[in-house]
Each structure stands twice: as structure tokens, then as C-alpha cells.
Amino acid sequence: MSDLTNRLMKKILVYSLMLLLSQSVAFAQNYDESKVPRYVLPDVLKTAGGKVIRNEDKWEKLRRPEVLKLFENNIYGRMPTDYDSIRYSLTQDDVPEMNGKATLKQVAVTVFRNRQSVQINVVLFVPTQARKPVPVFLLINNRGKENTDPTRVKKSEFWPAEMVIDSGFAIAAFQVSDLAPDNKDTYASGVLQKLYPEQLKMDNGMKAIGAWAWGASRVMDYFETDRDIDSKKVIVVGHSRGGKTSLWAAAEDQRFAACITNCSGNTGAALSRRQFGERISRINATFPHWFNNTYKKYNDKENALPVDQHMLIALIAPRPVYATNASKDLWADPKGTFLAMKAAEPVYALYGVRPELPSAQPGINMPSIGAHFGYHNREGEHNMTVYDWGNFVRFAKKFTSDK
Fold first, then answer.
1. Does the keyword Nuclease apply (predicted)?
2. Inside any domain, residue 339
3. Residue among 356, 372, 250, 369 nearest 312 (CA)
4. What stretch of H or E contains 251?
């Protein structure tokens, strides 16, 4: 091997090591509270023009639309509302399951636009003994379909249908791949290419998470036609990226009665400005198909964002929100999630809702459950478990029970 070749190979090796090091530094995550930078959250109650919002009427007419638009344009993308038609077909109806405790419905929700269509497949269990329409938990399932197995051959604590049915609630789910595969190369092959290709050309057009939230609203359309379901008491649920989606779905669609966001972390329920755990630059690099193009302008520039995640939670006011974390999931910033909930309280106060969360983050496995806010930090890893669902049911009973 010649000296020239040796020198060239050494230069390539050095360059490769420098590139790898620079990437490692760029994606280094902070897990040390002492290294959280000083930050100032955007004032959720002050308009862009400097007007301070002091009542719910001004919030709803002035500030809420402004905040919603900021999230659409800078993070999640604009959500289309037009389509030509929507159809519902029951592929299974009133099939007895769970030793007679529930009936199974499988519903195909098909949406048409410009001679194209997409189909959302919904699994729904309803308590057999219900004497009137019942509240329902709707899971945005970002995991495999086997987790919501309609045959119940496989039972997953990610979606403990039997437990929820025993608690008097209906439980439903749809899989995100029906709308947009969770893949940076193929995410556009569903809703986006078929129904809304114009969104792909817009910097503020929705991508995968927007498509999943759009799908949740189409399932909500179906619930309004189902006599077994109380469509005024639909609780949208999501874990991780699904938890980011459940927040966005509830913010965009006020028909959802409540939102549960489980271990949703960055661009979910956790504050971005804390720069703790996963950061915007990392999430945009790893999952470039989740958020709109504009969001990438804020890589490593969290303080330049005109919003933070407390404002997303505030968009759901006065409807109930439950957020969770897990003790071994620092990536999702448990403290930042709790602080975001607390920072949304001033908007709830406009509706006469007093603070229901403690002043400091609750300890591990010490849930705080009110009628409008709920929070817990469960012992364990990034997951959604029977422990989580048990608290979700406790929470839901506070605002779904007849007074």
C-alpha cells in the first residue's frame, strides 16, 4: 500500500471519527436537573398583541385560536376538515365476548375525498349490562394490532379490555398504520397521499401525528352515530407517540371529553425549554415524519419557539387531562411533564377550576387524581400498564358519573 493511500485512509478515518463525535455531542441528552437551563415560558394568557386574557370568553375568542394556530404552523401541521363523504360498516356486531360481559363490534370507518379513500378499522367492546349509552376509552394504538386483539386470544396490559369493561366503560382502539405507517419512508402512503396530497407540499402541513389525530376525529364521528356509546364522554388515550397524538387530537377536536397522555415526553406533555431528556433536534432527526417541516427550524433552539407544551394542555381546557410518567423513563422528562400541567392551570382557572395538583411533583406510585387534572409517575419503564389503566378509570369516574 502506497504512502499516499495510507495518508488518505488516515484522513478518512479521522474525518469519520470527528463526524461521529460531533453527532454524539449534538445528540447528547441531559439527565441532570442542575444542568437544566434557565428559561421563561411563553405567557399562555397574553396575546401576540400584548393583551392579557382575564376570562374564558376572551380566551375562547382571542387567545385560544391564536395558540392553536401557533401549534399548527410551527409543530403539528394544519389539520384538514374537508372530505367528500364518510361511511361506517359493521364487520362484526353484537358478538358476545368475555363470558357474556361484553359485546364486540368491529367497524370500518371509510373516508372519501377526490375519488380516493382510506379505511380506519375500529375494535369496540361495550358492557353487556349497560342500560344506557356508556363512556368509552379510545386508544390511538401505536403498537402492533395484537395488543388490541378482538378475539381476546392475546390479552395485553397495554389495552386491558376486560378490566375496563368490568369498570363499566366501553373500550375501543384503532391502529395508526391504517392512517400513516410509522415509518419515515412510507408514512405518506395513507391519508396524506390518498386524501390530502397538498399537505405534503406545505411547510405547515400535517405529517404522521397529524394524520393519526385526524383519524381519531373520524372515529369520533362514528361514535356520534352509535347508540351504545355516550359520544359526550369519549376519552382519547395514547402512549408515547400516541400520547403526543392524543393531546393534539383533543386540542383540535373539542368533542373529546377528556385526554389521557401516557409517557408522551418531548412534543407531548413535557416542557421543551427544560432541554431534559429527549430534545427537539433529536426527535426531528430520529422521527422526521412526525411533525411539520417548520418544526425543524427549532432544532437546538427551544427558546425561540412561540409556544411550549403547557399551552397545548391549556388548549384542552376546561376538559380533563391525565398525564403520566415512569420512573425509569427520564427520556420523557417526568418533572417537565408535571410542570407543564401546573403551568396550564391559569387557563383552567378562567373556568373556575381550582388547582387540583399538588405544588410539587408527587412521589413514585403516588397518583394525584382530581376531576380535571390527574398525574402519576409509575415505578418502571416506558410502557402503559394495568396500573396506569386503573388510575385512568378512577380519573374517568370523576367526570363521567351522573351527578
1. no
2. yes
3. 250
4. helix 241-252
**pLDDT average, residue stretch 302-321:** 98
Question: What cell does 379 get?
Answer: 415505578
Annotated catalytic residues are: 240, 382
Instruction: Give φ, ψ of 324 to 5 degrees.
Output: -135, 165
CATH number at residue 157: 3.40.50.1820
* Residue % of the chain over a pLDDT of 90: 90
- In the chain, how many domains are there? 1
Q: Is 295 part of a structural domain of the chain? A: yes
Residue 24: inside a domain? no
Side by side, which strands form the sheet with 321-326?
Answer: 85-97, 102-113, 116-127, 170-175, 134-141, 229-239, 258-262, 321-326, 373-378, 368-369
Q: Say if 329 falls within a structural domain.
A: yes
pLDDT-above-70 percentage for the chain: 93
Cell readout for 335 is 418533572
Q: How far apart are CA 335 and CA 325, in angstroms?
A: 9
Full-model pTM: 0.93
